[in-house]
Amino acid sequence: MSDARVGLVIEDDHDIRELVRTVLSQAGFDVSVASSGAEGVLVAKTLNPDVITLDLGLPDIDGFEVSRQIREFSDAYIVMLTARTEELDTLIGLESGADDYLTKPFRPRELRARIAAMMRRPRSVADPSEAMPGDAAADSGAVHPERGNFSHNGLELSYASRTVVVDGKEMNLTRTEFELLHALLEAGRTVRTKSDLVRRLRDEDYDVGSYISEADERSVEVHMGNLRKKLGDSPQKPRWLQTVRGVGYRLAPGEH
Ligand code: CA
Question: Of 174, 183, 41, 171, which is closest to residue 95 (Cα–Cα)?
């Protein structure tokens, strides 16, 4: 068994496939490729990849369906590669289970940055060296202060076990949704702007001044909408996710 993380590129366009393969290889992944959706699902089942890049327009089944099928057995970080920016809203709104979206043409360094941010996040309870910040993770440089457990209005989040329980029921969140929820719980009543949250997803400091596009902010809005739906939260009378119009989000007040 190799220690390298496994990456899977599902893409029918040869040039893009090779470009993404190169980016992932340089990031230290063992990379496999698939040129159709059905093949991609099969390879994902066999290799249990850590990260998957998924083309939306595949020759057999589309990327949404591929993502849904992969989500049935995998918690891989899925980056959907899509053709046009204006489709972004629809794409994310479809709740395909993807964690992130990049529109083509994208710059290799954009993809690199997102993969790097993903690698700094704990993957799951199944890998205790990553799930326990400050423990073995210190050796890999992936050090986070104890991010802890939160409890608010009937919702409990455990960072170490990556679980969210609402009124006793465990939620099935994507990594992105989990990170957004965690960021709000951590901030309490302090407002997090959309760009703050974009940076959080990239695992950057809040004040580094890196470029945040409108599509990035829009994507936070849509992920937040999906998260709200999963939690059964109401935008009008929020228990957890309060929208601060034109600015961002914060945690709703406590019920007691
Ligand atoms: Ca394609």
Answer: 174
Do residues 132 and 246 both lie within one domain? yes
63: containing domain: 5-123
Q: What residue ranges in 48-137 does DSSP mark as E strands?
A: 51-55, 77-82, 100-103
CA of 57 to the centre of ligand 1 (A): 4
pLDDT digits over 35-61, tens only? 999 999 999 999 999 999 999 889 999
Residue 20 CA to ligand 1 center (angstroms) comes to 13
Confirm whether 51 is domain-assigned. Answer: yes
CB-proximal residues (5 Å) to ion ligand 1: 12, 55, 57
Instruction: Tell me whether residue 256 is in a domain.
Output: no
- Indicate which CATH number applies to the domain containing 80: 3.40.50.2300
250 secondary structure, DSSP code = E
Q: Report pLDDT digits (tens) over 87-119.
A: 665 666 556 778 888 888 888 888 888 888 777
Taking the centre of ligand 1 as the mean of its atom positions, its distance from the CA of residue 184, in whole angstroms, is 36
